[in-house]
């Protein structure tokens, strides 16, 4: 199990959040009051080792780190400690292998790798805490007052990822293809997608899909189109978003039941592309959670690297949690 190093004031630290679409790095100086000063940021491609492999994941992380270091005119040797919150590292074997890769690249004197879900938990409270990621994929995490953890979802786009950007985009494409094949005349949401991809027939749309190098990312990007159409009261788009919100609500309810948390003690941090716009989908999710009987408090983690920094300076240790099977 990775051990998160203890942070001392005035140290330079690296906080990295890596997923299936991008990797973000934050270089910061730790202040005496437990806060931090952001010095620079860096970004690179995907670093989920299950999706892109260990070598490419490490390369993406190094690229994001190097960009941040260069912007601040710093060297890796200046950074005493680093915490890497990376998707696809729940498995201890994968996590250990990635940790070894990052040590070999000498990105910091001390470093640790933790699953990307952990920064979603509010470690400042002893009460229950929940987290939801809804970006390209979807997954939920929960912790109760006994420090027991449960994780639900994260099955990948073939088996699951219900409520994710990919799931929303896939439903929009299914609707568009069905409309084109049954009527030949797109309307509403289907018209917008056809115009976006410059197609007019189902054959052209399927040909377009076959040409994408990263089909999953392209499909997930369509979730933005669905949100915008839902705001214009396109009822097909509204229905797709309501289904996605209900799927995410199911994740929360499953976690709550497994962890034996009362309905009125649901505090949720959310992250991912679906929550990074104007709050429209957040309101849809809140309505779904409330309708299911919960009394939720929702907080958007707008910058995941700040959640990683919070973990780093708090002295968090993965061993303090018991992960339920």
From TrEMBL:
Residues covered by the ATPase BadF/BadG/BcrA/BcrD type domain: 16-281
Family matches, as InterPro entries: ATPase_BadF, ATPase_NBD, Euk-type_GlcNAc_Kinase
Domain of life: Bacteria
Name the UniProt record assigns to this protein: ATPase BadF/BadG/BcrA/BcrD type domain-containing protein
């Amino acid at each position: 199990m990775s051990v998160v190093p203890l942070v001392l004031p005035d140290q330079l630290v690296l906080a990295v959040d890596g997923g299936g679409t991008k990797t973000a790095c934050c270089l910061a100086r730790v202040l005496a009051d437990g806060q931090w000063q952001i010095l620079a940021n860096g970004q690179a491609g995907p670093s989920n080792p299950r999706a892109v492999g260990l070598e490419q994941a490490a390369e993406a992380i190094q690229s994001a780190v190097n960009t941040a270091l260069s912007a601040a005119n710093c060297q890796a040797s200046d950074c005493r400690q680093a915490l890497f919150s990376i998707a696809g590292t729940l498995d201890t074997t994968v996590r250990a292998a990635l940790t070894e890769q990052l040590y070999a690249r000498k990105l910091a004197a001390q470093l640790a790798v933790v699953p990307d879900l952990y920064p979603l938990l509010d470690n400042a409270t002893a009460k229950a805490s929940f987290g939801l990621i809804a970006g390209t994929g979807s997954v939920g995490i929960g912790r109760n007052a006994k420090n027991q953890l449960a994780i639900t979802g994260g099955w990948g786009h073939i088996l699951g990822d219900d409520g994710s950007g990919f799931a929303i985009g896939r439903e929009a494409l299914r609707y568009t293809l069905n409309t084109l094949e049954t009527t030949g005349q797109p309307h509403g949401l289907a018209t917008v997608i056809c115009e976006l991809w410059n197609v007019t027939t189902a054959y052209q749309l399927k040909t377009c899909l076959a040409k994408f190098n990263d089909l999953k990312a392209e499909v997930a990007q369509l979730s933005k189109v669905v949100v915008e159409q839902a705001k214009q009261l396109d009822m097909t788009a509204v229905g797709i978003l309501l289904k996605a919100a209900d799927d995410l609500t199911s994740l929360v309810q499953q976690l709550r039941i497994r962890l034996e948390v009362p309905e009125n003690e649901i505090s949720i941090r959310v992250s991912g592309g679906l929550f990074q716009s104007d709050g429209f989908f957040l309101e849809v999710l809140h309505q779904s959670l409330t309708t299911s009987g919960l009394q939720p408090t929702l907080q958007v983690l707008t910058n995941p690297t700040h959640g990683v920094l919070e973990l780093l300076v708090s002295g968090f240790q993965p061993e303090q949690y018991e992960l339920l099977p």
